[in-house]
Amino acid sequence: MSGTVADMKKDTLRETVYAFNNTDTVATYDIDMDVWHPNRVKMASIVCEVLPFDRAEKLSILDLGVGTGYLSQKIIEMFPHAKIVAVDAAELMMDKAKLRLKDRLGQVTFQISTFQELPDKINTISGLDAVVSSFAIHHLYREEKLRLFQYIHSKLKPHGWFVNCDVFKTADAVLEARFRRLHHQGIQERTRKIKRQEKTLDQISSELTDKEKKDGDHLLFLADDLQLLAESGFRTAECFWKEYREAVYGGIK
């Protein structure tokens, strides 16, 4: 990798961490997610449904990009004896997660780390039953995602599960444009209903474009994500649920 490309990726990484580690973003994150990604509720429920464990099991789970703790909370509600290692690079987001999970802090270990730093920072855990993530891994470049999937595979026990809720892009330009339009229309409606604000579709499109750039989004095709899982050693790579540009997918070791 050339120095120029490496420096550019480091700059993007710093910008991504900064985008999620400021008080304004943290203060409005959950309500913003209700506007941008209303399927988050459905997607979290699918994660809990697809994991083939009994409620009484003492599971060991890694949550990558814990954010405000939404997915970890849902997992603990479904599997009340689970122990979770919650990872995020944004310390302010993690503080919000600690508040959300305040009644379950004895079950959650919090670790500050970027995904790129994981192999060095969090290298003592092993034998995980599951690794989960929600709306976080799409910030990685393709080769970074491959390394993360390889790390995940190495930390899972045999037959362990990886399940990821995320966004992706569509290969067909006509479908991509249509899916984006539908997304923008949904945001317009929810902005009116939840935030009591009126915005044109052009405003929403411009705001989302700026947000994707600021957040450091690097969306792949869903088929590429599944291929990367296969390349990482997962014996099964599957999409469990999909709607337009959002999916719940993963693999079994």
From TrEMBL:
Domain Methyltransferase per the UniProt entry, residue ranges: 61-160
User: Which GO terms of type biological process are on file?
Assistant: methylation
The answer to whether the entry has keyword RNA-binding is: no
Q: Name one GO molecular function term.
A: methyltransferase activity
The residue stretches assigned to a coiled coil in this entry are 187-214
Pfam families linked to this entry: Methyltransf_25
Task: List the Gene3D superfamilies.
Answer: Vaccinia Virus protein VP39
Keywords assigned by UniProt, alphabetized: Coiled coil, Methyltransferase, Transferase
This protein is called SAM-dependent methyltransferases
